[in-house]
Structure formats: C-alpha cells, structure tokens
Amino acid sequence: MRVLLTSHGSTGDIYPVIRLGRALVEAGHAVRFATVSLFRGEIESAGIEFVYLPPDWDQSGFAEAMRDLTKARHALDLIRIIYSESLPYLDEILCTLTRELRTADVFVTSYVFANLSVLARELNVPCAVTTFAHNVVPSADYPPEGLPRLAAPAFFRRRWNRLLWRMADRVLCWQINRVVGEAMERHGMGRASSFALEPADLALVTVSPALFQPKHLWSERFQFTGYLRWQAPEDPALGERLATFCKGERVPVLTFGSVTFDEARKIMSRFMLNWPTGKKILIQSGWAGLTIERPHAGMLRVDRVSHDQLFQYASVVIHHGGAGTTASVLHAGVPHIVIPHIGDQWFFASEVKRLGVGLEVKRKRWPEDLPKAVRAVEKSKKMGARAQKVAARLAEENGPARAVDALERLAGR
To answer: What does CATH list as the number for 2-227+397-412?
Structure first.
C-alpha cells in the first residue's frame, strides 16, 4: 500500500502523523509525508520519505504564526486565520499534492485541512483525516463546542444537538470557502461541502477510546484509535543533568510547547517574583523561549527534550493544554495544571478536570496564581492516584496498530 500523509502546523500537528507513518512503514507499506522542511529530519529518521511543501519557514516563522493564532476570538476566527495563512502557498501545495496523489493508494490529511479530501475524491483516492482533539467529533450526545446545551429529555436534546452540528458544518464550510474557495476551484476541486460531518471517507480520532469516545457517534466513518505518540530521542547527558538537579525528588515541570505569546520575558519576570524561594522547578524553553531572568539555584531551564524523558521527574506538569502535551502527561501518570492559550486548549483543560487528574489556571494571572495551584495539586493524593490509574489504562491501548488497520481496510474496499 502506498500512503501519502500531509499535515501542517507545530510539533503537536506533525509528531502524531510521524508516529502513524512509522507504524505504516513497520507494517510493510511505502509512506511519503508532504509537509514543511522544518520537520524533514524527524520524518526521514523515522524511515518515511519526505515531500516538500511550502512555506519554507524556520521555527521563528512558525512561532510568529502561533502568536497570531492566540489572537483568535473564537473557533470560526481561528479557522479564518489558519486558512488565510495558507492562501499564499495554496497553489503550490495543491499542485504538489495532486502530483503525489496520482501514485497513492490512500491519502491521510489533518482534520484542520479536511478540504483536501475534495482533491482526493477528484482523483479517486480513498481519504482519511486525523484529529487529535475529540471535541470536533460530531455526536447527538452533545452540541458543538461553545454552543448551548439543551436542558430537556434525551429525545429532544439529541435532536437539538444534531441540528446544531448541521448548522456548524454549514458555517465552517462557508468560512473555508470564503477564504480559499476560489483557489480550490482553480484546481478543479470544487468548494468544501462538509467539514464537521463528512470530513473524509474515514476520520481517525487519535485519542483514547476508553476515556473519550461518546456513546453515540455521528457515523461509522469516525473511529477512535488511541493515541499516536512520537518522541524526540532521549539525551543521556541531559538525563544526568536532570537527575543531578532533582536528586531523587519529583519537581514541578513548566512547558508551553510550541505555543508563543507576546511579552514572554515580562511574563517570566512576574513568574520569578512569585515563585517560592527554595522550591525547585524544571522549565522547558519551548517555542516561546521561556527564560530564567536571573540565576536561581532552584530552577533549571532545558530546551528540546523528549516528554517521556522530562516528565519522569515531574510531580506535576504545568502546560498549555495542547493535544500532544496533554497526551504525554496522561501517559506519564502525573497530575496537570493547564493554562490554556488558544483553540482547543480550553477543551483539554475541561477534560483534565473531568478525569480528576488536574486543574486549570487562568492565563491572565498565571504567574501570580501558579504557586498556590502547585501546592494544591502536590498535596492531593486523589489526583495522583487518578493520574496513575489513567496511565495504566492508556498502556493497554495501541493507537498506531488500530490506525494502520483502519487505513488498510479503507484502501482495500
């Protein structure tokens, strides 16, 4: 089977697709991954053929784009910004994907760019989308994220939810077509006609079915596989530094991953003024470039590092609520403190609270409010026990294998 993968965005959008590609390679399939050159090294190290797509930005370019996304007022505005960012490069992207699809047996794209399924349909190539956030999965059990829930008997509530999902689907398509509809038509694709309800022939929902799958799915095209986790290689020298710093003690870990925001230096200065003297913490610099403004014996700053390597030293992980980071903390079996910045991160904060494995701190005053939250989480035996129970359940799932099986069935039908 010849598989063409594509995804755009930060590490949280790319790494799960690398894990899927690696699983496909291990199953004996030929895999190409079309994306930006920033991730070429990781892709090729996984044994996957790299195909270049623009833009040819370095990490600072993507960090700037992430700052723009943090200014989105709501989900519809977020979609507008994402598609507007892609518009200058869309003709080249579509030409490259058209060429690559002519020799593909199955196509896998990100749920955010589900409009590309229209291109696959025109070329008679079965298409799947991947989503790392289950709040986009339609169900009669709940309305789309942010829309009102109806307090009524189940029959009326489900009818109400179905209506809202249909309305949301139309509005999302309108927004996408408003931005890139003309470009799609130039390539003979036609305009997007369904985004939420029929994103592709198959939708791989790459989160835990045991923890997150609703009772009623919209259709069989939505399949919960389990997590697809890809980790950067572990660094033995860094491991020695971490062990020396922690001295057998578990300490808080602060990481905002690929999220960036304005005035990061000033925010970190506020954090340092409020962090308790003598309390250790590990700080991952990430795309925001978090800094330690002055020497501090209780703080250690690290750069790029495997989540699994870093989180084994954590008493609690303070993070932004990104899909990939949330997955890593769940697998590590330690509690969360979530400080959402953008998009679905507020949803993941609510899921962390629902599972009983952490709490949320508001972004506006997190440098001042964080110490109190850390004390509360570290004292909570219930959160720690629940986090370990969740991790044990996740260890029983095999997301990559289930995803490969679903794609093989899709290509063979």
So the answer is: 3.40.50.2000
223: DSSP letter:
E
Residue 252 burial (C-beta neighbours within 10 Å; 0-12, 13-18, 19+): buried
In sequence order, the 6+-apart residues with CB closer than 8 A to the CB of 174 are: none
Q: Which residue do the tokens 């709940």 mark? A: 142
CATH, domain 236-394, list 3.40.50.2300, 2.40.50.140, 3.40.50.2000, 3.40.640.10: 3.40.50.2000
In whole angstroms, give the CA distance from residue 12 to residue 351. Answer: 18
Q: Is 110 helix (H, G, I), strand (E, B) or coil?
A: strand
Which conformational region is residue 237 in: left (phi greater than 0), alpha (psi within -120 to 50 degrees), or beta? alpha
pLDDT tens-digit readout, 309-325: 999 999 999 999 999 99
pLDDT digits (tens, 9 = 90+) for 191-249: 889 999 999 999 999 999 999 999 999 999 999 999 999 998 899 999 999 999 999 99
Max CA-CA distance within the chain?
Answer: 63
Distance CA 91, CA 186 (A): 9
Q: Specify the domain boundaries for CATH 3.40.50.2000 within the chain.
A: 2-227+397-412, 236-394
Three-class SS of 316-356 = EEEECCCHHHHHHHHHHCCCEEECCCCCCHHHHHHHHHHHC
Nearest Cα residue to 204 out of 124, 119, 125, 107: 107
Residues with Cβ within 8 Å of 127's Cβ and at least 6 positions away in sequence, in order, are 106, 107, 108, 109, 116, 117, 120, 121, 200, 201, 202
In angstroms, the CA 17 to CA 5 distance is 7
User: What is the identity of the amino acid at 340?
Assistant: P
Report yes or no on whether pTM surpasses 0.70: yes
Q: Residues near 405 by Cβ (< 8 Å), separated by ≥ 6? A: none
Cis bond before residue 340 (omega within 30° of 0): no
Identify each DSSP E strand in 24-131 by its residue range.
30-35, 49-52, 106-110, 127-131
> Which ranges in 187-276 belong to alpha helices (H)?
209-212, 236-246, 264-274
Question: Which residue type is seen at 259?
Answer: V
Given a contact cutoff of 8 angstroms between Cβ atoms, the answer to whether 325 and 384 are in contact is no
- DSSP state letter for 194: -
